[in-house]
Design a protein that fits this description.
The complex is a heterotrimer of chains A (325), B (440) and C (256). Chain A has 325 residues and is of the alpha/beta class. Chain A has 8 helices and 18 strands. Chain C has 256 residues and is an alpha/beta fold. Classes of the chains: A alpha/beta (325), B alpha+beta (440), C alpha/beta (256). Chains in contact: A-C, B-C. At the A-C interface, helix 3, helix 4, strand 7, strand 9 and strand 10 of A face helix 3, helix 4, strand 9, strand 10 and strand 11 of C. The complex binds flavin-adenine dinucleotide (2 copies) and adenosine monophosphate.
Chain lengths: 325, 440, 256
């Protein structure tokens, strides 16, 4: 029986929700087509994570454990994945779309001569391979695409599917893997982490996004305060990540991250298509902008026209009250 | 760069492109500089390119399925009050064969296409490697030495040439810099144009406007369209979109505290217009200054040693009510400018007299003849009797004339009398009539 | 150092678009240099200016894509190779990677730079595919590059932070547009670009199978994205509108 393999993204010992979304979809497709759904954990502490996966219903859990996977490096990850693919010959390999998985998608596809689709927002199996939808033209348009052959390798945008829990008693199979440091052609010298224990943007239920309108320390304070009231993740437009005001990993949009929270609040952001590409799937969009013609108002459910420095203080006060009730 | 050009053209609008095409054909070494990202990117206007000078630049252009939208064989002039329209409508198969009397264009597409044609002409010339079209470059200054034009400055660098053609459009900073126009232009001599492009299913568009193949319609509006502000409205059919917009007197707008955008929105809500544009999707909005066509804003002198000004930079434009003519003037004046430069090169004389021959040619052309002849018509369009009372009167008459009730119908003569009484005085009409007879 | 920069001509996503019978139509046929590739060119120029070297751009595309090569040359690249296609092939990233791999097979280079992704399709595959096919080390999503002793140190944007990686030569790096603002060619650059050498190669002359049967991914059709309707705009007294919206987020939307 052929297998649908979901790669489980792990960050700091925590499973990324977006990869559980993918797993849930693969479970669904597997039962629809009478196939097997397997999860794969490649990590320096894979065994511990594998246990947590049982409640998400895969038929099998594969693990590859090696200290080399403590940090992201493409060469060993590619080797590990090639090894697994040889071993279990999956029909589909699905990843959550992250900078780490996008890093290897192309090379993995080229090495295994597999068809690949990046950043899909929907996918299903067909006779020939996989049919999927993916946003193009800065997400203004959706393209329906097909990838032929077996395996097909895809990455899936976060927020595309719901996570469904289904406990299973999936066997955990560890795949032996050794890696010789000589094979490592690239060397990791340093990791500069985004400061603090911030909420992962792509998983946040509420996202506050700051744009060029947030001009100074005072503005950033207001953003922080709002975020803490709402327990929200903070993101930014390119105008502010480029200026070094916010960490580049917080950029939302075509170049940066895709978010799909329940509530997105854009503050001092004009709404350029490249930014909108990363947040248009938010459930409720609120925009605060002093320019009544800012394009962001074309997609905002609640458009507040005004100076953010005047709007935010009473807004925060009122939210505090609402929260306390 | 120490190489010297025969000519540097500033601005790749219709005028600059026409000049460039002419220079390329005449085997001249030149530089065409455009500040927009590509030719046409800044040129939001659009509408009908009247006449057939285009065929001079691109012979048999109609055989190419690019650049232009539709040819005009259907024209309509509409008077409008708040609820009705009364139109003079003319359609003729006389206009069906190329060269056409007018083609509708969308500038971002048209200018780009024409620039490609110019590039082809450059490639076929002796200066294939030495003539350039340079987009995304702003000309900062015209360089002059000992009373002569010697080149331009862009990006802090100097580039030298025997001559410069200023084709920079209505916002003619360089023309002012070289002293050919006053720095201050009164607002009542300027108009602002706003335009939307609205998309339809092509079949729907063709059915709604009774278009056949690439035939098209142009419609001008007088009256309620501009909500009491002097000016007029227009609607042109493109391939699968229409261009709809207004030109409005800047000063009058300011005095009446109205915004072009709001007036355009009201215009679109007019019951007749709403029926016309129903189901369409706005895909573009743009605004731009336009010259009024008032001769008083035209620079008296359009040349200096080694320099000529053409197109709307010279305020060459005529809006006499039945059409806006700006692009055709730009095209012809660009051609004339390039011809003068070519002659100057032959005689190795770019002096005052040589450049003057451009203005003489312009005076002898239909452009200055028409601008001179129709000045009164230009002023008529500022007359509130013409832009408000007259349309109201006409529509009032129309409403009565076309109503059939189950009661005795008055003679139309009496209807007209009634309408006049309600909207204007006889005296005003006689004045207007006399003016119009003189103007047109 | 010899840099090759792979550049692509892409439709301008800001130009008006429409879909007719499942086909994507760009009214104005406006094409530009992929923004991410422009950043790659810029970065190569900066490195060349500091350390010397040579920059060649490579583009696979139809005849008229030559203007995009000229653009890169006008920015300052030294030469170009144009691998000419008909323009109507349905190539996917893998096809482009295979063509590029064939092109690079017998070339000598220090580094190949690619864009992180195509601005129109956002695929982000070609670069690492090419590295895979050539068997060279690579790093994707670079936001900073530095030359140290003839080899590249890459700052790549990861999921939570930035990874500083040494990529030995010959290697490949894909560039984000977050690393710089590409220069706009000046007049001198534009004039010089015409005299810079551009090699033209036909795809047919490269021994590579990119026949339609070999292409494994296809676009079946395009569709409009369901548009969001604009909601309500709140203008007026800041205190008042702020309170109003805050309350609605709680009561009407239940997202607080
Ligand atoms: C290939 C490509 C990829 C890109 N990728 C991304 C991406 O991933 N993410 C991204 O964000 N951008 C991206 N961009 C850039 C994008 O095009 C915009 O330039 C950027 O999003 C603009 O950021 P902004 O809205 O903060 O700034 P601006 O566009 O400058 O807008 C600032 C807004 O703040 C408002 N404002 C100012 N002061 C106040 C105040 N006191 N109160 C209220 N409002 C105020 C202004 O009215 C204005 O609307 C990309 C561009 C390209 C070409
Ligand atoms: C709403 C509207 C509707 C119109 N409808 C019609 C119509 O139906 N028919 C008609 O014939 N006319 C119409 N016109 C008028 C017509 O558009 C203009 O008369 C015509 O564009 C003038 O052409 P031009 O080449 O002289 O100037 P432009 O087309 O304005 O071109 C000037 C070019 O020079 C460039 N430039 C300026 N300064 C510099 C610099 N310093 N360095 C480099 N480049 C520079 C500009 O970017 C521009 O591309 C309309 C105008 C408007 C606004
Ligand atoms: N036709 C092409 N010619 C040259 N380089 C290309 C081409 N297509 C893709 N690339 C390179 O691959 C990158 C984008 O890959 P992708 O997103 O997979 O299309 C671009 O930024 C280029 O560097």
């Amino acid at each position: 029986m052929s297998t649908l393999l979901t790669y489980i993204s792990v960050n700091d010992g925590k499973i990324k929700r977006s990869s559980l979304e993918v797993l849930s979809r693969c479970n669904e497709l597997a039962s629809l087509h009478g196939l097997k759904s397997a999860a794969l954990v490649v990590d320096s502490a894979a065994a511990a994570i594998a246990d947590q996966l049982k409640q998400y219903g895969p038929d099998t859990i594969y693990t590859i454990e090696n200290p080399i996977f403590k940090n992201h490096l493409n060469t060993p990850l590619l080797r590990a994945l090639s090894r697994v693919m040889e071993e279990i010959n999956p029909r589909l390999v699905a990843f959550a779309s992250t900078e780490s998985t996008k890093d290897i998608l192309g090379a993995l596809a080229a090495n295994s001569e597999a068809a690949s689709l990046a950043d899909v927002s929907e996918f299903e199996l067909t006779e020939a391979g996989v049919k999927a939808k993916r946003p193009v033209m800065a997400s203004k348009i959706i393209s329906a695409v097909e990838a032929k052959g077996s395996p097909v390798i895809i990455t899936v945008r976060s927020g595309s599917y719901d996570v469904t829990e289904k406990s299973s008693d999936a066997p955990i199979e560890s795949i032996p893997f050794s890696f010789n440091d000589d094979e490592l052609k690239i060397t990791l010298k340093e990791i500069i982490s985004a400061s603090g224990d911030k909420i992962d943007l792509s998983e946040a239920e509420t996202v506050i996004a700051a744009g060029r309108g947030v001009k100074d320390e005072e503005g950033r304070k207001l953003i922080d305060e709002l975020a803490s009231v709402l327990n929200a993740g903070i993101g930014a437009s390119r105008a502010l990540t480029e200026a070094g005001v916010y960490d580049p990993s917080l950029q939302i949009g075509q170049t940066g991250k895709v978010v799909s929270p329940q509530l997105y609040i854009g503050i001092g952001i004009s709404g350029a298509i490249q930014h909108v590409a990363g947040m248009a799937n938010s459930k409720v969009i609120v925009a605060i902008n002093k320019d009544p013609d800012a394009p962001i108002f074309e997609i905002a459910d609640y458009g507040i026209v005004g100076d953010l420095y005047k709007i935010l203080p009473p807004f925060i006060d009122e939210l505090k009250k609402v929260k306390n009730n | 760069m120490d190489e010297k050009f025969d000519c540097i053209i500033v601005g790749a609008g219709v005028a600059g492109l026409a000049a460039a095409m002419t220079l390329a054909r005449n085997n001249m070494k030149f530089l065409l500089i455009e500040k927009g990202e590509f030719p046409g990117s800044k040129n939001v206007s659009g509408g009908v390119l009247w006449g057939n000078d285009l065929a001079k630049l691109v012979p048999d252009y109609w055989e190419e399925d690019a650049g232009w939208e539709r040819f005009i064989n259907h024209r309509r002039l509409t008077f409008m009050d708040d609820q009705s329209t009364f139109s003079v409508d003319f359609k003729s198969s006389h206009f069906n064969d190329p060269p056409y009397t007018g083609v509708v264009v969308l500038r971002s597409k048209f200018d780009r296409w024409l620039a490609e044609k110019v590039q082809e002409a450059i490639d076929a010339s002796d200066y294939a490697m030495d003539s350039f079209i340079a987009p995304n470059v702003l000309v900062e200054e015209v360089l002059q030495k000992d009373g002569k034009t010697v080149g331009i400055k862009a990006g802090g660098d100097e580039f030298y040439s025997d001559s410069v053609i200023l084709a920079e459009g209505v916002n003619n900073l360089l023309t002012r810099q070289v002293g050919l126009q006053d720095t201050y232009v009164p607002a009542d001599h300027m108009l602002t144009g706003v335009k939307e492009v609205i998309r339809f299913d092509q079949k729907v568009l063709e059915d709604r406007f009774q278009l056949n193949g690439l035939s098209g319609m142009s419609n001008e509006f007088v009256g309620y369209a501009t909500n009491g502000v002097e000016g007029g409205g227009f609607l042109y059919t493109n391939r699968d979109t229409i261009s709809i917009g207004l030109v409005l007197g800047l000063k009058d707008l300011r005095e009446k505290e109205q915004t072009p955008y709001d007036i355009l929105n009201e215009f679109k809500k007019h019951p007749v217009i709403a029926d016309t544009i129903r189901g369409g999707e706005v895909v573009e909005y743009s605004a731009h200054i336009v010259s009024s066509g008032d001769k008083r804003v035209m620079p008296e002198k359009l040349y200096k040693p080694g320099l000529v000004v053409c197109g709307e930079a010279a305020n060459l434009l005529l809006n006499a009510g039945k059409a806006i003519q700006g692009m055709d003037y730009a095209m012809r004046s660009g051609i004339l400018a390039a011809e003068a430069i070519t002659k100057a090169k032959e005689k190795v004389d770019f002096g005052e007299e040589a450049m003057k021959s451009y203005q003489t040619a312009l005076e002898d052309s239909y452009i200055m003849k028409d601008i001179n002849n129709f000045q009164d018509a230009v002023h008529l369009l500022h007359d509130p009797v013409m832009t408000q009372k007259m349309p109201n009167l006409i529509c009032d008459f129309g409403r009565n004339f076309f109503s059939i009730k189950n009661e005795p119908t008055p003679k139309s003569r009496n209807m007209l009398r009634g309408a006049i009484k309600r909207h204007a005085s006889y005296w005003e009409l006689i004045k207007l009539g006399a003016k119009s007879a003189k103007a047109l | 150092m010899k840099f090759y920069v792979c550049i692509k001509q892409v439709p301008d996503v800001n130009a008006p678009l429409q879909i007719k019978d499942g086909q994507l139509i760009q009214d104005a046929d406006r094409n530009i240099l992929n923004a991410y590739d422009a950043s790659a060119v810029e970065e190569a120029l900066v490195m060349k200016e500091a350390h010397g070297g040579e920059i060649e751009v490579v583009l696979i595309g139809p005849e008229k894509a030559k203007e995009t090569i000229r653009k890169a040359l006008a920015m300052g690249a030294d030469s170009g190779s144009h691998i000419i296609t008909n323009g109507d092939e349905s190539y996917d990233s893998f096809s482009y990677a295979k063509i590029l791999a064939t092109f690079f097979k017998d070339k000598e280079y220090s580094y190949i730079l690619c864009g992180k992704q195509s601005q129109d399709t956002d695929s982000g595959l070609t670069g690492s595919m090419l590295a895979g096919l050539l068997g060279i080390p690579y790093a994707t999503n670079a936001v900073g590059l530095e030359v140290t002793n003839g080899s590249l140190t890459v700052k790549r944007q990861g999921d939570t932070g930035q990874e500083i990686i040494d990529v030995p030569s010959p290697g490949l790096v894909t560039c984000s547009n977050d690393m710089n603002d590409p220069r706009i060619p000046n007049l001198k650059g534009i004039m010089q670009s015409k005299r810079k050498p551009v090699d033209t190669i036909s795809v047919a002359d490269l021994v590579v199978d990119v026949s339609s049967e070999s292409v494994k991914t296809h676009v079946l059709s395009y569709e409009e994205k369901p548009t969001r309707q604009p909601g309500k705009k709140y203008e007026g007294e800041p205190e008042e509108v702020a309170r109003q919206v805050a309350r609605l987020l709680d009561t009407a939307e239940n997202v607080i």
